[in-house]
């Protein structure tokens, strides 16, 4: 069976003779051609799965010329990144082996008349190994360059697609709600399975998660009980500064969330829902501590704005809500590419999220503006 590969090299810049540069797609295909030539020789010798990597890169390269959504592009990016990592490891391995082979040949030295036959056989074996390693190293470099080039193309296509989505006049929120109601029951079953199942078992019935929750609750209660004696022992006084009181106020929440997240990860119960909950709350506790520190009576805001205590407290509550809601959205976006719901299916939730967030920001601006916080 004969397979024909069609290769097209990109145009040379400025119409000048070959200056060693070609278009990205031509560079990629040239690398793939060289890789195809060397795959039969290196299939058993390299830790990089050349035939599989070559097929994957070729399939992704063909897919980029067709329509692809952000989820598909992200999956391609993960595959290309993994191949690039394997190619880098392959280069490191082959460089090390080639260096050892070169040293061995240097020790043997050139062939001389009358040398023992076993030395001649060993030298020939090392020379053959040197040629093989050089070929393997070149192939690993080709795959590293090809994966880097393809990764750049994926990023460009994803950026262009996201820009197009941002500039597109979408359906109104009522139409988005109607589209949400028309989603098939199978998709909702997959959605429920995605959030409430982990390792093919309900997440809240898993002993690992129950143990993690117990550890987190225990640590939260312990820190809540000990924070005053702990502060007294560390600072040798109960007359703490505002910044110190703020830290000890949020320390139990930070410690409890960190303990649950770490133990869930160790026990392999860190499901998407657990990541969403504790990723949001853990970061929220840290940001709330910084906001409380900035909006205290002697904080940085008080030094620049003539806000009253009531305005500071109101702004702090609103800012904490904005921080919690924003963090929830960011963590959800980070998890959502694996979500069974497509981007179109989630349009209603995204619109509602933006409306609530915008309303909170406008409320903050109105509240602070009514109090005229800026000094004359």
Automatic annotation (TrEMBL):
Membrane-spanning intervals of the chain: 25-43, 209-226, 247-267, 273-295, 316-335, 347-366
Keyword Signal: no
Keyword Ion transport: no
Highest taxon of the lineage: Bacteria
Record's keyword terms, sorted: Membrane, Transmembrane, Transmembrane helix
Protein name: Mechanosensitive ion channel protein
Organism in which the protein naturally occurs: Acidithiobacillus ferridurans
